């Protein structure tokens, strides 16, 4: 085995390591935001974009999905990473046909995602023909003919895979799934499959809807907030303003994470004097440094302690009225949870019994509890059960469907939740498909399609040969990079609808297309009329997004235009869907959505309200639970946790502060004290010594995956700097996508099939040591 992937961005010997930051945001965040914006956009363009970012008559941030506070917008309604995301998209740098003529695909394949992304916006549709070494320009009509020809030549529509990223608007996503189902397949993997699929699965089973039940005002009004497996300072920085308000209202906040994160230590709001010259606000009152994969044990242990407290003071802990009126399965849960061994919980979590009891006391004292979580909970093999256990704790206390209380899965990409609402799912319910068929006089397929992991398997095994991606960077977002790349190279055609170059453009099928599209910041004009799109945030609010910048090229098309034009070519002029009318005026798309998707009545009127409108959420709105029992369901799960084998570590992949998903903004992780490089492994200082290394050593990281025949399958990445860091013994952390090659394709969460990227068994070897191979 050799190191997988492109060359490094820098000489790792230049890597600088300092102490981790003790706070998030503040003046440094402002300076970095302006520096990156000026560098990419220039002064005038920076002012025009940042003053409209997340404003009512502006455009939605292409970064995270954290909502705005209803009724109030700050003059600067963005964070450092939001400014970086806008700068990346609104850059004045361009990637023209001349760029592709200068650089062969082989040469580009040696470049990192960071280098590729820094080149700028793609200006023309490009094609890589069979056997060619360079991409070359292609006309839009010829591109659509090429795609349609490949799709119609398939033996079955199910031999095509259609991927969607979270950046896609509601309108484009709705039309995309409509085209795909009209073509005849449900193969619609999306980025939800890799992040919050576990959340949606658990919440649908327990409360009847796979979305969070709280609003921003709920979080601000909570008196206890548990934040588990989430790093708001980097991944959702505007959440810190909400937490600051909650603290001002008296909330107690408990951070539950293997790594201490700067944003959960202290927040300096740069829009306040106290955030510039003062100490800022301490966010977390308590930090529970939990072992990777120990969260299920934590919530089961808390459940047992709640029952013990109820025994000691009957009627004071459990919400009996809520349990009797709205819940099912409590008796089985109670029987099971009383048998939980607290010594095992302590071992699994790495916490002390005193910490467990103190957290249980906080739950008991709280009248309004919110539990927030992100990938730290969703990307484990037992992720669905873990989230269900968190719901169990809330249900026991009656903390669903009341102000200031509920579940808060914090979504990542800005419209990832909206895409799912619009039908981007491989197993949409019959009610949606029936409404779609009735509206458009089509017959949608009912057989469930491929999710992301199954799509990779299908392409690898020859069961799918055409891959179309509506945004995103599939190669760098997915697990098991070698398997993913081999799968895409096994395709006859790969199509990427993109704004900028990325790794997925150089890992391609026999023929490959790059179709350049407008971004959120770009002015979208169809037939002389300005168009707007809509998005759904992490808390089910739907609002408009209006780009204002002149596109960098006249050859760019909107996602809606691309979908409609391809659909007309693929499905023919007699297809019953009015594709051309939809392309001409996006209000017509929203009118159709209002008749198909529940909660979107009078869409065009309501979305033009100042803050948009909330979608229905029965558990939140009326304590109505549309589950199989008609009630909120307690669940019973056997305890699972992640054990560290002797001589090994459990590795989690994570983002740096200078990236968003697979987009690398720079090579610094300011909050963790890492500057000038990304190939690092953070490990406990005692583990480093016990494994025979020293901090600063260069190591190879080898993951171990047990095969069914008892042997061990190995994957390797090379030349990572080993750094001592505050993390539980037996645990380690490193950035993705550099460590995605270590994640086995079959290492997934039960029920949700989400890659278990937070629980990879690895060993460390001195860099350059002889490889042992599989054994």
Structural class label: alpha/beta
Q: Give the N-to-C terminal Cα separation.
A: 13 Å
CATH-derived architecture of the largest domain: 3-Layer(aba) Sandwich
- Beta-strand level of the residues, as a percent range? 15-25%
Total domain units: 4
Task: Extract low-pLDDT stretches.
Answer: none
Strand arrangement, major sheet: 6-5-18-17-16-7
Provide structural commentary.
- With 775 residues, the chain is an alpha/beta fold.
- It has four domains: 12-19 and 643-766, Barwin-like endoglucanases (Beta Barrel), CATH 2.40.40; 24-85, no CATH class; 94-191 and 415-593, Rossmann fold (3-Layer(aba) Sandwich), CATH 3.40.50.740; 197-409, Dimethylsulfoxide Reductase, domain 2.
- Helix 1 packs across helix 2, helix 7 runs parallel beside helix 26 and helix 14 (295-312) crosses helix 18.
- The longest helix has 24 residues, at 27-50.
A few lines on this structure:
Helices cover 35% and strands 17% of the residues.
Descriptors:
single chain; 775 residues; alpha/beta; Barwin-like endoglucanases; Rossmann fold; 4 domains; six-stranded mixed beta sheet; six-stranded mixed beta barrel; 31 helices; 17% strand
Write the SSE topology.
Elements: E1 16-17, E2 24-25, H1 27-50, H2 80-89, E3 94-95, H3 97-102, H4 105-108, H5 113-117, E4 121-122, E5 126-128, E6 136-137, H6 140-152, E7 160-164, H7 170-183, H8 197-207, H9 216-221, E8 224-228, H10 232-235, H11 239-248, E9 252-256, H12 262-265, E10 266-268, H13 273-276, E11 281-282, E12 286-288, H14 295-312, H15 320-326, E13 327-328, H16 330-337, H17 342-349, H18 353-365, E14 369-373, H19 375-378, H20 383-396, E15 406-409, H21 416-421, H22 430-440, H23 452-460, E16 466-470, H24 474-477, H25 481-489, E17 493-498, E18 511-516, E19 525-526, E20 529-530, E21 533-536, E22 541-545, H26 559-571, H27 579-584, H28 586-596, H29 603-606, E23 613-614, H30 618-622, E24 632-633, E25 649-654, E26 659-660, E27 663-664, E28 674-675, E29 680-683, H31 685-690, E30 698-706, E31 712-724, E32 731-735, E33 760-766
Helix pairs in contact: 1-2, 6-26, 7-26, 8-20, 14-17, 14-18, 14-20, 23-25
């Amino acid at each position: 085995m050799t190191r997988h992937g492109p060359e490094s961005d820098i000489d790792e010997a230049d890597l600088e390591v300092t102490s981790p930051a003790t706070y998030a945001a503040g003046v440094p965040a402002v300076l970095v935001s302006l520096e990156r914006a000026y560098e990419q956009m220039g002064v005038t363009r920076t002012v025009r974009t940042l003053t409209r970012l997340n404003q009512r008559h502006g455009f939605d941030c292409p970064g995270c999905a954290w909502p705005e506070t209803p009724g109030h917008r700050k003059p600067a309604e963005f964070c450092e990473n939001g400014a970086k995301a806008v700068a990346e998209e609104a850059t004045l740098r361009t990637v023209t046909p001349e760029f592709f003529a200068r650089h062969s695909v082989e040469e580009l394949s040696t470049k990192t995602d960071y280098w590729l992304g820094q080149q700028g916006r793609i200006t023309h549709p490009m094609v890589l023909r069979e056997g060619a070494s360079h991409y070359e320009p292609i006309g839009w009509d010829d591109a659509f003919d090429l795609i349609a020809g490949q799709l119609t030549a398939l033996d079955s529509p199910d031999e095509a895979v259609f991927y969607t990223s979270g950046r896609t608007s509601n309108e484009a996503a709705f039309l995309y799934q409509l085209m795909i189902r009209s073509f005849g397949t449900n193969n619609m993997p999306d980025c939800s499959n890799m992040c919050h699929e576990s959340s949606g699965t658990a919440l649908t089973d327990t409360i009847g809807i796979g979305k969070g039940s709280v609003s921003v005002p709920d979080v601000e009004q909570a008196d206890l907030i548990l934040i588990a497996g989430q790093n708001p300072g980097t991944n959702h920085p505007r959440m810190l303003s909400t937490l600051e308000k909650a603290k001002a209202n008296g909330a107690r906040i408990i951070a539950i994470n293997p790594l201490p994160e700067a944003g959960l230590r202290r927040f300096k709001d740069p829009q306040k004097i106290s955030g510039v010259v003062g100490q800022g606000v301490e966010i977390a009152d308590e930090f529970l440094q939990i072992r990777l994969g120990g969260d299920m044990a934590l919530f089961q242990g808390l459940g047992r302690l709640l029952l013990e407290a109820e025994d000691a003071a009957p009627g004071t802990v459990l919400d009996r009225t809520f349990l009797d009126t709205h819940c099912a399965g409590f008796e089985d849960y109670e029987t099971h949870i009383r048998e939980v061994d607290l010594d095992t919980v302590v071992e699994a979590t790495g916490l002390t019994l005193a910490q467990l009891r103190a957290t249980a006391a906080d739950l008991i004292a709280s009248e309004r509890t919110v539990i927030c979580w992100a990938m730290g909970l969703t990307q484990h093999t037992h992720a669905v059960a873990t989230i269900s256990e968190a719901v169990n704790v809330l249900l026991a206390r009656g903390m669903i469907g009341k102000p200031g209380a509920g579940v808060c899965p914090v979504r990542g990409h800005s419209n990832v939740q909206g895409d799912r609402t619009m039908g981007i799912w491989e197993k949409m319910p019959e009610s949606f498909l029936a409404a779609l068929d009735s509206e458009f006089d089509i017959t949608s397929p009912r057989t469930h399609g491929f999710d992301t992991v199954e799509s990779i398997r299908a392409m690898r095994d020859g069961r799918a040969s055409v891959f179309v991606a509506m945004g995103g960077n599939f190669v760098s977002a997915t697990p098991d990079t070698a398997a993913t790349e081999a799968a895409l190279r096994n395709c006859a055609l790969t199509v990427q609808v993109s704004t900028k170059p990325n790794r997925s453009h150089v890992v391609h099928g026999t023929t490959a297309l790059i179709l350049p599209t407008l971004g959120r910041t770009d002015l979208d004009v169809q037939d002389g009329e300005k168009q707007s799109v809509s998005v759904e945030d992490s808390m089910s609010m739907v609002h408009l997004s209006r780009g204002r910048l002149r596109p960098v090229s006249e050859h760019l098309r909107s996602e809606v235009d691309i979908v409609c034009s391809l659909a007309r070519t693929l499905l023919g002029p007699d297809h019953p869907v009015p594709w051309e009318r939809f392309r001409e005026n996006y209000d017509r798309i929203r009118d159709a959505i209002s008749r198909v998707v529940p909660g979107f009545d009078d869409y065009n009127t309501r979305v033009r309200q100042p803050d948009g409108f909330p979608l229905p959420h029965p558990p939140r709105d009326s304590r109505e639970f549309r589950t199989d029992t008609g009630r909120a369901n307690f669940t019973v799960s056997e305890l699972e946790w992640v054990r560290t084998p002797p001589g090994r570590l459990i590795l989690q992949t994570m983002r740096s502060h200078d990236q968003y998903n697979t987009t690398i903004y720079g090579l610094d992780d300011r909050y963790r004290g890492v500057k000038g490089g990304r190939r690092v492994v953070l490990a406990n200082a005692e583990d480093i010594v016990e494994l025979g290394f020293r901090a600063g050593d260069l190591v190879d990281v080898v993951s171990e995956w047990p095969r069914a025949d008892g042997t061990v399958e190995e994957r390797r990445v090379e030349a990572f700097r080993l750094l001592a860091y505050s993390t539980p013994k037996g645990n380690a952390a490193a950035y993705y996508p550099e460590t995605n090659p270590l994640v086995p394709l079959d290492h997934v969460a039960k029920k949700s099939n989400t890659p278990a990227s937070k629980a990879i068994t690895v060993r460390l070897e001195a860099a350059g040591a002889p490889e042992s191979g599989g054994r």
